[in-house]
Amino acid sequence: MAGRDDAPRPTDAAWAEQLLDHLRPGADVGPVVDWLAAATGAAVCLYDDTGTVLAGTALPLERRLLADIAVGRLASAAAQDGRRHVRLVRVALPPPASAGVLALARTAPFDRRASDVVTRTATVLELLLRARETAAAGHRLERATADLRLAVLQLLMVEDVVAARRVAAGFWPGLLDTDTACVYVMETGPGDRDRLAEECRTATGERALVVRCPAVDAHVIVVAPHDAAGARLRALLRRRPGTYLGGSARQGLARTATAYGQAVSALAVARFRPGRAAVHAERTHPERLMDPAALRAWTARLLRPLDTLAHHTRAELLATTRLGLEFTAISAAKVLGVSRNTVRARMDRVEGLLHADFSDLTVRAAVHLALTAHMARTDDAPAPAADGADAARLGDLLAGPALRTWAHDLLGRLDGDARDLRRTLRAWIAADGNAERAAGRLGVHAQTVRDHVRGAEPVLERQLLASGSDLYEVVLAHLAARDLAVPALPRTQPDLPGAPVHR
């Protein structure tokens, strides 16, 4: 800014106090340069070592003189250019820069007082620039650490536990030394998430992996290998109104994606609980009611087309498909750190290899069942022999008496509602979750279908409008109860004999 010789300037007793007032955390150099211009009645500019303006307005100065001061050949200089009196002072800059130059120009000569003000101001500018660089370095380190935490989470999500441990070991020794962990998801306002993440790290004593969720701005994900983390997060929750907590059952580290889905499901329940916390209920899952050998044989047969792929490619496709079936492609992409087009391309590849139509909700539920069974394997035993695999049929898995009893009990909860929720839900699933198509078949409004599906959620104690494990369990219940036709997976298998088709 251009100074005026007749502008009011602070007295000798006041200028030092005013200058020191600028020396506070987070202060910028721009206001200091503006203050110096007013205090000395001069035009002031601060240059870096390349001659780039850092603050103030550029002055017509000899470039060679600026360079001599910046590299240290001169500490300061004074010159007179016509009616202008110029003063140049070297200002130390943080590495990798060498030094900058504080330049002043005014029509009056620089007396002792003005020179003293310039010298002291140069010192304050050095301190502020050093503090700014220290803060910037701290922010860069914090971002790098956050990126590493996210990278570890993404490796766990794709079942690469070895690589996740290798990355984590150098920064958080012992963090992933256990074979199992619980996953928690905390929800707060988007503007408060950074503070919540820091409080989670403090509460868990860096004995848990705390990650700002890449998919949902309001979520913080905590992978907790040690049991104490859950109690500490609940204690933190009690001190934070408007914050919610969902937790998973303890899972193997290779099943982090499953645990994450459980935590998100529990979080939806927590929003309606007085304590604002919920843990995934250990309820009866359909795969646990199926014959283990038959389920394993059918899973091996269905996923056999992927066995010809390289191990890392196969694992990547399976993990991406699992997340893509649980969440939207956009959310899965953010969690995995890839583009949504990459997620869709990988799922399209799996869809092609399996000869499966993922637009069919019953097919998605069946493939999700296979991926769940595949991920649940904890042994390294070889896949079933070809004859056993070929004999496995999805219809046989769903025809077991225990599973059929479970399905009838679950869906029977809907029978007492006068709105005939069961009929609406069956039509909605048959329409692949499309309310408009289901409404056309039922002769009602699409909003009525949505209201009925939403009304079925608390009765079944499962989320239906959001894709995921809850929805696929309800779909499998319809298949086992023979309310819907069993999809032909693999393509050569017949439908379940006698199953009606409600499509």
From TrEMBL:
<dbReference type="Pfam" id="PF13556">
    <property type="entry name" value="HTH_30"/>
</dbReference>
<feature type="domain" description="PucR C-terminal helix-turn-helix">
    <location>
        <begin position="331"/>
        <end position="373"/>
    </location>
</feature>
<protein>
    <submittedName>
        <fullName>PucR family transcriptional regulator</fullName>
    </submittedName>
</protein>
<dbReference type="InterPro" id="IPR025736">
    <property type="entry name" value="PucR_C-HTH_dom"/>
</dbReference>
<feature type="domain" description="PucR C-terminal helix-turn-helix">
    <location>
        <begin position="421"/>
        <end position="477"/>
    </location>
</feature>
<dbReference type="InterPro" id="IPR051448">
    <property type="entry name" value="CdaR-like_regulators"/>
</dbReference>
<dbReference type="InterPro" id="IPR042070">
    <property type="entry name" value="PucR_C-HTH_sf"/>
</dbReference>
